[in-house]
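Morning. Coffee machine broken again, so started the prediction first thing and wrote up yesterday's gels while waiting. Chain of 307 residues, entered below exactly as on the submission form.
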Amino acid sequence: MEQSLPSTTSSTPTTDVKPQWPDAEKQHRKQRRRDRLIRGIVIGSAVLVIGTLLLILGYILLQGIPHLSWDLFTTPYKPGLEQYGIQSMIVSTLMLIGLTLVIATPIGILSAIYLNEYAKKGKVLEVIRFATESLAGIPSILFGLFGYALFVLGFGFRYSILSGSLTLAIMVLPVIIRTTEQALQAVPMSYREGSLALGAGKLYTIWHVVLPNAIAGILTSVILSVGRIIGETAAVIYTMGTVTEMPTGFLSAGRSLSVHLYFLAKEGVSFDSAFAVAVILLVLVLILNTLASFVAKRIGRKGKGEA
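Came back before lunch.
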């Protein structure tokens, strides 16, 4: 007799399981669409910002460059005689920038070093940082009124470049302190620990190890400060005045380029000169920023022992 072979088919019922890959493919396509959308928004925003900047710069340059002349830099400002020279404004602006940075930069850097390297963490430190950030949000007109009451009237400096510089130094201090503090925080703690482990003191470590590695961020704070000093008008009008004569010292009144640009546009004296002054402001900011970046690179290489 032939024996029947056992059946190879299982008697257990099977359930139809749908493959999962269609859902995964659908999710992948949805994720790719979302990524494209986000990438498009980011690229569009970048193009919008850069395009707007180029449009503004291009318009100012096209309107201002044809009206630049040697007389603009050498003649005094006498609109009644058809003379729109800005020689005294350039000198006043450079004096204002230089004195403001001399006052604010050391105070701001030393304050940031104290907050980051010496101050103990706690509520007092949080209050100081909160006050610093709050100071950065105060409108410039209030700084101008404060400078007028304290420096012009209180200390008797009158309308002068010194009064304007002291007022602007208070304005840019929050920028210098916060940016410098962030630059110091970016220096790895291992640098400090290695220097201290070799027997160096804390002050030596800060001066020779921390600051050279944070110099780029520190110079960034100076560049930001220069931009605000050059562009400020309200506080300068209340403290430095609007005199168009050549200053003879820091106790002389003067008119900055931004204030002069404001009055040219407001009074409608000469829009051609206003655009020319705007071009000079752009070039001045570019030169100062380039110089600061060059100095930062040189100091950074020297601090790291590079040739």
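Strands lie at 77-78, 83-84. Going to sketch it on the whiteboard this afternoon.
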